Amino acid sequence: MARIARITLHPIKSLDGVAVEQASVSQGGTLVHDRAFALVDLEGKFVNGKRNKEVHLLRSEFDLDTRTVTLYRQGESDKHRFQVEAQHAELEGWLSGFFGFPLRFMENGHTGFPDDLDAFGPTVLSSATLATVSAWFQRMEPDNLRLRLRANLEIEGVPPFWEDHLFHEPGTVVGFAAGSVRMEGINPCQRCVVPSRDPTTGEPYPNFQKIFATRREETLPSWAARSRFNHFYRLSVNTRIPSSESGKHIRLGDEVTVIGVKHVD
Prior knowledge:
Number of helices: 4
Oligomer: single chain
CATH topology of the largest domain: M1 Pyruvate Kinase, Domain 3
């Protein structure tokens, strides 16, 4: 039986995640606290792993209750703690010093700062997929790949790539539910350069994208909609959550059920 095995929120876009026992759905159709904050340079561009490798060396510990973040450089013991409202200026100053250029620490409590503006619900992946894909790479453990892929919802009790059931042909969505929360699977997530780098050092894995795409094509399940793969550097599922689900909760252990395919305009 498919069940929610892990829920991970990333309060600050591109920084470390927080494992939680339950997450609530926001009015904007995201998980509350997920990517609610972002680092932005003075040109309005995100400071993220795609554009700045220094992100991989920045560790963060976010207390969701007190809205307090502790920041430090990987491998160093000197930690700096900030309450995001009361010490906003100090927080921006420390981050600007870390990266070597001025930046802003911004918040969007409605939809957060998702990568996919059409499918900005939680990303979904299975534990079995993590185990299978990590074995494609020498000396890579599932925990390391988990940090690279940064999925919100992890499902257990299913075979590898089961989440490929959650999207279908173009012009459709796949309805599914996690407990009482109804969602729509949209498409397989297109990966960027970030998964190719070690999540704590930023060191690239040689030929990561080529190995990944080759093995993904070779192992693509018969149930996957092949037409959604213009290339095979795709893994996990992008979703949407209808506005009717606002205020509901997804919890560890919730059963995940597929409702069916729906055509959309």
